[in-house]
Structure formats: C-alpha cells, structure tokens
Amino acid sequence: MKTLIKTAALGSVLALSAMAAQPAAAAPKNTSASETGTIVPGLAVANLDAVVANSSAYTAAEQQRQTTYKSQYDQAKARNDALSAQLKPMVDKFNADRQAAKPNEASLQQQAAAIQQLQENGKAELQRILQPVGLSQAYVQEQIEDKLNGALKAAMTKKNVSMVLSPESVIAFNGAAYNLNQDILNELNTALPSAQLVPPAGWEPRQMREARAQQQQQQAPAAAAPAGR
How many CB atoms are located within 10 Å of the residue 21 CB? Predict the structure, then answer.
C-alpha cells in the first residue's frame, strides 16, 4: 500500500486554528518612503498589499481581534488539542501496522480512511468555531479596500504620477526614487484611521453578495418570461 500517514499529519488540523488565531500574515513592510522626484517623470511603483498590511486600520484591528474574539480562539485551540490527541494513536497504529512483514492492506485502507475522515471533520469544526473571526477579517479588509483606490489616486495626484506599477511587473527599480508606498499609506491612514472590527448581524463578504446578486439577475428573466401557450 502506497498510502503513508506520518505523525506530522496532525498538523493539518492544527494549521487552520493557528492561522486564524494569529494575525493575518502581513505583506512585506515598506521600509523606504518615496522621494519627491522620480527618475522617469510620472512613473511609480507601489505594493498595495504592503500598504494595507501597514495601515493603521489593519494593524489596530489585528491587535483588537485577539481580545474581542478570545473565546473563539481559546475554543478552537482546545478543540484542536483534543483532535490532535485523538489522531495521534490512530496515526501511530497505522504506521506500525504498515511496517509489519505482511501488512493487512484492507485494514490499512480502513485506518487511513478513518484518519482522513477525522481530519476533515476536525477542520470543518474548527472553521465553524472560527467563522466569526474570518468574517471580522473580511469586514476590516473590505473597509480598507473601499478607501484604497481613493488613497492611491490622491497620492498619484500629489506626486504627479500618471502610472503606477506593481513590484512584480518590473525587473528592478530604485525604491527610493519610485516607491509610492508611504504616500499611499499616508492617504489611506487619513481616509480611514480605524476600521469597525465586528460586522453587522447578517453581513456577508462582497464576493458572496456579488455572487448572490448575479444569481438573482440570471433567475429574473426566467421568472419574468410569460408562460407558453
């Protein structure tokens, strides 16, 4: 049997709660502010992910979330620890059985399926526990994104920039001359000093709202069509 389950597989359950329990991984921080001049007039480079990750609204929300959603974090950690304790002997037995001189393939398949099922159920359970945290993260992100484009345009206007490129789109650039990160960050912090941490009851992320609206638009013509004679 080619299936191999190592004790490290326990981390598949731990990873979910660890990711949610920690502040979202920040994009590389901006370390150099943009200069007043540019080597090529009208051209600049900006890392918008870094701008968002270093914004006042984002960093404050990440800190506040640890307190506001402490009960969810604690519940997820406790449940994850219990799942890990439940999985470990199962994984150990599987690995021991597969080392036998004549391993029972049918038994190994059953054990592997049971382990996988428990991991999947555990991951789904942790997602349910941490759902309020995920909604909070999406809510804050959406508030920042709503102000980001305006901040970008304001920074471009003040620096007489007509084109902004992402760092990934150029081979190399002089960060001190072309970097517009700090200018955008300043505008964003002015437009949104802080964000609301807890979404309103029934709030859904933009992607879900847009998907529902699109589905309703597709269903509307069919509902409005006159019945055939």
Answer: 20
